[in-house]
Design a protein that fits this description.
The complex is a heterodimer. Chain A is mainly α. Chain A has helices spanning 3-25, 30-41, 54-74, 77-82, 84-108, 113-123, 128-138, 144-173, 191-223, 226-247, 251-263, 268-293, 296-301, 303-327, 332-341, 347-359, 364-396, 424-433, 445-453, 466-471, 487-500, 513-521, 532-545, 550-574, 584-601, 614-631, and strands spanning 415-418, 438-442, 457-460, 479-482, 505-510, 526-529. Chain A folds into 2 domains: 3-175 and 189-396, Na+/H+ antiporter like fold; 400-520, Rossmann fold (3-Layer(aba) Sandwich), CATH 3.40.50.720. Chain A is built from 26 helices and 6 strands. Chain B has helices spanning 17-26, 37-40, 48-56, 74-83, 125-128, 130-138, 157-176, 181-185, 190-202, and strands at residues 4-8, 32-36, 60-66, 101-108, 142-143, 147-150. Classes of the chains: A mainly alpha, B alpha/beta.
Chain lengths: 637, 203
C-alpha cells in the first residue's frame, strides 16, 4: 500500500473528524462541516491533498458512485408509483422552467443554442446528496417541503438518463469539429452512434441486473457468509462503474441504474444494510472532495464573473422553485425551505459538465467555471438554510413562539412534548382531554400553524436547540416527553436534556427494542416502545377471536407486557457481553433468538395459577378424602 | 311474566365446570339476559348507563358468581360500586330499583356443612352475604335467600346435572311468577324451597 494513499486517507478522515463535530456543535449541520474541512485541506488553503485537484475528483467520483447506487436502491417501484403525480408534476415544472430560463440567458450572452441547452439542463439539477442528508438531519423528511423536495430530486435523477442520451446529439449538431484523440471507445463514434451506445449500455445494465446479478446474489446468499455478501455488493457497484468507464459513460449513472434494477430484487434490504455503513462515510468523503475541488484561483482571478454566475444560478433556481412550491400549494415556511434547500446546482452537474467537455459542447475554461459554480453553490446551501432558520423564518414565517395576548397570563406548563407526530400527537391530545397543560415543540410549520389555531401552546423549531428548549420552559417544567419520529434526533434531545436540565423527568418514545437499549444505557427509566402495546393488543384480540375469554386474554396480554419489559431490562445488561462487532441486522436476529429462548423458559401465560387452578382442586380433593377417612375409621384409604 | 337479568361474574369461566353447567340451559331462555361481566368489561371499565338501562329492563336480578374468599369476584364489587348510584338506586330520589327482586346464585368449593358456627368457615353463607343483602335492602329491592351449589370440587356429573336442572326450574318459575316471596323467605336457600315445593307437589 503506497504511502501516498495512506496519507490521503488519513487527511480526509482527519478533516471529517475535526470539522464535522465543530460544525455540529455550532448547529451548522454535518454537510457544511465536511465542505469546510474539504476547502481547508484542499489545494488552495493548506494544500494537503491533490496538488492539481485531479486525484481528488477521482476520489469524489467514487463517493458519488456509491451514493447513487444507494439512491437507486431506495427507488422501490411501488414507492415511486405512489408519489408519481407529485414527482412528475413538480419535477417537470421545475426542470423545464429552469432549463428554459438558463437556455435563454446563455443564448443571450452568446452561447450556441446547443451549449445553452446543455448548460441549462445541467444547471437545473439540484444536489440529492446535500438535500437528503440535511432533511434527514433536521428530521424534516415527512413535512410537505421534505416530500416535495424528494419528488423533485427523484425526477431530476431519473431525467439524467435521457439527458445523457441526448447530449451526444447536441454535439453532432454543434459546429465544433470532433477531437482527433479518442480516450474511450465511445468518443470515436459519430453522435447518433454514441446515443445508441449509451442506450445499449443502459439496456445492458438493466438486463444483467435481472439475469446475472440476481442469480449471482442468490448463489452467494446460499454460501451464508455475511462478509462475502458485502464483498459481492461492493463488487457489483465497482464492476458496473468499471464497465461504464470502459465504454466512456458516467459510472455514477451506471450504478444508479444498477441500484434501480436491484431495488426490485429480494436482496434489496440486504444490499442496503450492507452498504449502509459505507454510505455515511462515502457521502462525507464526497462533500469533502467538493469542498477541496473548489478552484479558488478562478474566483480570485475573476471574482465578479464567478460571483455573478453563482448568484445568477441560485437566484434563477430559487425563483423557479418558489413558483413550483406555490403551484403545489406549499405554505410560506415550507416553500422557503423547499426553495432554498434545492437552490444549489447538484452533483449530477459535475457528471454532465464533464461529459459536455468530452463531447466538446463546452470549452475547457467554461467547464472549469461551471464546475466551480456548482461546488460553490453547494457550499452556499447549508449557509442559506442556516440564515433561513435563524433570521428569515423567525421574522417572516411561523413564529418560534406564539405572540402572547396582552391579557393572558403566561403560566408555565408542567409538561413539554417534543414532536407532535403520530406518537406525540396522541399523547398531547390525551393530556389535553384530561386538562393537563402541555407545551409542544415541533418543526413542521404547517402543523405548528394548525396546532396554534387549536389553542395549543407550540414552539416552532428544532427541539434539540437549547435556546428553544429554554424558552419553552425546560427549566421550570417537570416532565419532558421525547416523542420525535427520528430516533437519532430524539436521542440527541434526550442526551442534551439530561445534561442541561436535570430537573426534568424524561419519558421517551423508543422506536424498537434496540433503540430502548440505548436509552437504558443512558440511564432513562421511562421508556415506551412504539409498537409493543399495540402489537400485544392485537394479540389479545386474536386470542378472543379464537375463542379465549376476553378477561383471560386481557390478563395474558398485561402479563406479557410486564414480562417483556422486565426481560428487556435484564437483556440490556447482558448485551455488552459479546464484544465482537455484530452488524445491526444480525444483532436484531440474535435478540429475537434470546427472546424466544427465554419465552420458552418462563411462559407468562401458562404459569397462571389464579383462582381455581388444577393444583388447587387436586389438593382440595385430597383433603376431602382424608376428612372422610377420619369420620369413618373403618374405611381404608 | 318476569324478565331475569343474570349479572354473571367469573374471571376464569372457561375452567369452571359448575358455572358452565348451571348457565348452559338457563342462558338459552328467551326471558333471561346473561350479562357476562368479565367478558364485557375485561378492562374493568364499566359502562354505567348501559348497565342501568339493563337493570331497568328486567324485573328480577341475579348476582351469579363463584364464592371467593367469602365474597364475590372483584368485578362484581366494582359493578355494585359503580352502577348502584346514589340518587338512582338509593338515597333521595333513588327509587329506580324499588320492588325489584334480587338474589345471589353462587358456587362454592366448600360444602354446605363447612359453613356454620361449628364448621370450618365458622359462619353461615347467609351471614357472609349480609353486605349484599343490605345493599339490596338499601336499594329498596326484595332480597331472596341464595341459590347455592356447594362442594363443587366433589360433585359428580349426575349431581351437577341435577343442580343445573334445579336452577333452570327456578328460573322458569320466576319467569312465570309461580312463587310466593313469603314462602321462599322461610328457607335458608332457594334450593331448599325448590325441593320442598316439588316434593310437596309429588305427594
Amino acid at each position: 500500500m503506497s504511502q501516498g494513499f495512506l496519507q490521503d486517507a488519513l487527511l480526509y478522515l482527519a478533516a471529517a473528524i475535526v470539522f464535522v463535530p465543530i460544525a455540529k456543535r455550532l448547529g451548522l449541520g454535518s454537510v457544511l462541516g465536511y465542505l469546510i474541512g474539504g476547502i481547508l485541506i484542499g489545494p488552495f488553503f493548506l494544500g494537503f491533498v491533490g496538488g492539481e485537484g485531479k486525484d481528488i475528483m477521482h476520489f469524489a467520483e467514487f463517493g458519488v458512485v456509491m451514493m447513487l447506487f444507494l439512491i437507486g436502491l431506495e427507488l422501490e417501484p411501488a414507492h415511486f408509483w405512489r408519489m408519481r403525480h407529485l414527482v412528475v408534476g413538480t419535477g417537470s415544472l421545475q426542470l423545464g422552467l429552469t432549463t428554459l430560463l438558463f437556455f435563454a440567458a446563455f443564448l443571450a450572452i452568446g452561447f450556441t443554442w446547443q451549449a445553452s441547452l446543455a448548460v441549462g439542463l445541467a444547471l437545473s439539477m439540484s444536489s440529492t446528496a446535500i438535500v437528503l442528508q440535511t432533511l434527514r438531519e433536521k428530521g424534516l423528511e415527512q413535512t410537505q417541503s421534505g416530500r416535495s423536495s424528494f419528488a423533485v430530486l427523484l425526477f431530476q435523477d431519473i431525467a439524467v438518463i435521457p439527458i445523457l442520451a441526448v447530449l451526444p446529439l447536441l454535439a453532432l449538431a454543434s459546429a465544433q469539429a470532433p477531437s482527433g484523440e479518442h480516450a474511450t471507445f465511445i468518443q470515436g463514434l459519430p453522435g447518433w452512434a454514441q446515443t445508441l451506445a449509451l442506450l445499449g449500455a443502459v439496456g445492458l445494465v438493466i438486463l444483467s441486473g435481472r439475469f446475472i446479478i440476481v442469480p449471482f446474489l442468490r448463489f452467494i446468499a446460499r454460501v451464508r457468509l455475511r462478509e462475502l455478501f458485502t464483498a459481492s455488493a461492493l463488487f457489483i457497484v465497482m464492476a458496473t462503474a468499471y464497465v461504464m468507464v470502459l465504454v466512456g459513460l458516467s459510472p455514477a449513472l451506471g450504478t444508479f441504474l444498477a441500484g434501480v434494477v436491484l431495488a426490485n430484487s429480494e436482496y434489496r434490504h440486504e444490499l442496503e444494510s450492507d452498504i449502509e455503513p459505507f454510505k455515511g462515510i462515502l457521502l462525507g468523503l464526497f462533500f469533502i472532495t467538493v469542498g477541496a475541488s473548489i478552484n479558488f484561483s478562478l474566483i480570485v482571478n475573476n471574482p465578479l464573473q464567478i460571483t455573478a454566475l453563482v448568484l445568477g444560478a441560485v437566484l434563477v433556481k430559487s425563483a423557479v422553485l418558489a413558483l413550483t412550491g406555490r403551484v403545489s400549494r406549499l405554505t410560506f415556511d415550507q416553500n422557503v425551505l423547499f426553495t432554498l434547500g434545492l437552490s444549489q446546482v447538484g452533483e449530477f452537474a459535475f457528471v454532465l459538465f464533464s461529459f459536455m467537455h468530452q463531447l466538446q459542447i463546452l470549452p475547457a475554461d467554461w467547464t472549469d467555471r461551471m464546475m466551480g459554480v456548482t461546488a460553490i453553490s453547494m457550499t452556499v446551501t447549508p449557509l442559506l438554510l442556516l440564515v433561513n432558520e435563524r433570521f428569515i423564518l423567525p421574522r417572516f414565517g411561523t413564529l418560534e413562539k406564539a405572540e402572547r395576548e396582552a391579557d393572558a397570563i403566561d403560566r408555565q406548563h408542567p409538561v413539554i412534548i417534543a414532536g407532535f407526530g403520530h406518537f406525540g400527537g396522541v399523547v398531547a391530545r390525551f393530556l389535553k382531554a384530561n386538562g393537563v397543560r402541555a407545551t409542544i415543540l415541533d418543526n413542521d410549520s404547517d402543523r405548528v400553524d394548525l396546532l396554534r389555531k387549536m389553542g395549543f401552546k407550540v414552539f416552532y423549531g428544532d427541539a434539540t436547540r437549547i435556546d428553544i428548549l429554554k424558552s419553552a420552559g425546560a427549566e421550570q417544567a417537570r416532565l419532558l416527553i421525547a416523542a420525535i419520529g427520528s430516533p437519532d434526533i430524539n436521542y440527541d434531545l434526550v442526551e442534551k436534556t439530561q445534561k442541561l436540565f436535570p430537573n426534568l423527568t424524561i419519558m421517551v418514545r423508543a422506536a424498537n427494542r434496540q433503540d430502548a437499549y440505548d436509552y437504558i444505557d443512558a440511564g432513562i427509566r421511562d421508556i415506551y416502545r412504539e409498537s409493543l402495546d399495540t402489537a400485544v393488543r392485537l394479540g389479545i384480540d386474536v386470542l378472543v377471536k379464537l375463542g379465549y375469554r376476553k378477561y383471560t386474554a386481557t390478563r395474558a396480554g398485561q402479563n406479557f407486557i410486564r414480562y417483556d419489559e422486565a426481560a428487556m431490562h435484564k437483556l440490556a445488561l447482558h448485551r455488552h457481553d459479546e464484544s465482537a462487532y455484530i452488524s445491526k441486522s444480525r444483532e436484531e436476529i440474535r435478540m429475537q433468538q434470546q427472546l424466544l429462548a427465554s419465552d420458552r423458559e418462563i411462559n407468562p401465560t401458562v404459569n397462571d395459577h389464579a383462582w381455581d387452578s388444577d393444583v388447587f382442586v387436586d389438593r382440595f380433593k385430597d383433603d376431602a378424602r382424608k376428612e372422610e377417612n377420619k369420620k369413618d375409621p373403618s374405611r381404608k384409604p | 311474566m318476569n324478565r331475569i337479568l343474570i349479572l354473571f361474574a367469573h374471571p376464569r369461566f372457561e375452567k369452571s365446570q359448575a358455572s358452565r353447567a348451571l348457565l348452559k340451559d338457563v342462558g338459552q331462555l328467551p326471558e333471561v339476559t346473561l350479562n357476562d361481566l368479565y367478558e364485557k368489561y375485561a378492562d374493568f371499565n364499566i359502562d354505567i348507563d348501559a348497565e342501568k338501562a339493563l337493570m331497568a329492563a328486567h324485573e328480577i336480578i341475579v348476582w351469579h358468581h363463584p364464592f371467593y374468599m367469602y365474597g364475590a369476584p372483584a368485578l362484581l364489587k366494582q359493578w355494585i360500586d359503580l352502577v348502584l348510584e346514589h340518587g338512582w338506586a338509593h338515597g333521595r330520589g333513588g327509587e329506580a330499583l324499588k320492588g325489584r327482586i334480587i338474589f345471589t346464585a353462587l358456587t362454592s368449593g366448600g360444602t354446605r356443612e363447612a359453613y356454620g358456627a361449628n364448621g370450618y368457615n365458622r359462619f353461615t353463607l347467609a351471614e357472609f352475604l349480609r353486605p349484599f343483602e343490605q345493599t339490596a335492602v338499601r336499594c329498596k329491592m326484595v332480597y331472596l335467600p341464595p341459590f347455592a351449589v356447594q362442594g363443587t370440587h366433589l360433585l359428580t356429573d349426575d349431581e351437577l346435572a341435577r343442580h343445573a336442572a334445579h336452577y333452570r326450574m327456578l328460573m322458569e318459575r320466576l319467569i312465570r311468577g309461580d312463587f310466593r316471596v313469603e314462602d321462599m323467605m322461610r328457607f335458608p336457600f332457594l334450593n331448599d324451597w325448590l325441593v320442598h315445593e316439588t316434593g310437596a307437589n309429588k305427594t
